């Protein structure tokens, strides 16, 4: 697991802290479920986590805007997101991302549309980003998200060749302070939610927190369920 330097959250330590919006329902950083297997040299595609618990997963992409309020919001909420970083946005900002209570995963080097591209091009984008993140944060990422959510069989082969466990997309997104659903009008258990490091970070993250609370869900780390 590729994590930042933030201290792990445990149920025991939660009782010693001021009340947060969400308290950890289990010790974060412990595997709750494993990723589906890599089959025929292709990583599995995960868009929703199968769970009978009231859990939801927040993921944050790109890293283009290093918003100064991000760390404070995450810690006050008690929410540990999973972030998918591009080399072109994250390069030169290691100190910013390392101080966030997040786990860092891969999102290509330069954020191209991978669909229909050749194997070597895709492998260069995916492995190159994984190498960069491993060098910056000390461990190689295990999860990969293709830019724009676009992929093909070549993408899945390339990601497997780079050592990834799963390709992760999403079931809901947050834009301009509003949660948008692919189906229905609420978040449901197992949903993977997408947002971005943008100037609207505060509005977007707050909208997600409020929606999760309204729908009776607790945000937990994605990688704990793709161990």
Automatic annotation (TrEMBL):
Gene3D superfamilies: Glycoside hydrolase/deacetylase (3.20.20.370)
Domain of life according to the entry: Bacteria
Chain ranges of the NodB homology domain: 50-166
The name this protein goes by in its record: Chitooligosaccharide deacetylase
Pfam families named in the record: Polysacc_deac_1
């Amino acid at each position: 697991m590729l994590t930042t330097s933030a201290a792990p959250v445990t149920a025991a330590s939660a009782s010693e802290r001021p009340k947060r919006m969400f308290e950890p329902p289990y010790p974060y950083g412990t595997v709750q479920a494993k990723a589906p297997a890599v089959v025929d040299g292709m990583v599995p595609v995960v868009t929703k986590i199968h769970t009978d618990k009231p859990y939801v997963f927040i993921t944050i992409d790109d890293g283009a805007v290093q918003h100064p309020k991000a760390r404070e919001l995450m810690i006050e909420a008690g929410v540990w997101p999973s972030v998918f970083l591009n080399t072109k946005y994250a390069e030169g900002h290691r100190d910013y991302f390392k101080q966030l209570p997040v786990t860092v995963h891969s999102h290509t080097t330069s954020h191209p549309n991978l669909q229909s591209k050749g194997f070597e091009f895709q492998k260069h984008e995916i492995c190159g980003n994984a190498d960069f993140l491993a060098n910056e944060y000390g461990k190689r990422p295990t999860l990969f998200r293709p830019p724009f959510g676009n992929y093909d069989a070549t993408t899945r082969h390339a990601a497997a060749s780079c050592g990834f466990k799963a390709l992760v997309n999403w079931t809901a997104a947050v834009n301009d302070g509003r949660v948008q659903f692919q189906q229905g009008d609420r978040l449901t258990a197992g949903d993977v939610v997408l947002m971005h490091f943008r100037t609207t970070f505060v509005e977007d993250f707050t909208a997600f927190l409020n929606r999760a609370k309204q729908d009776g869900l607790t945000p937990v780390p994605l990688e704990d369920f793709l161990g």
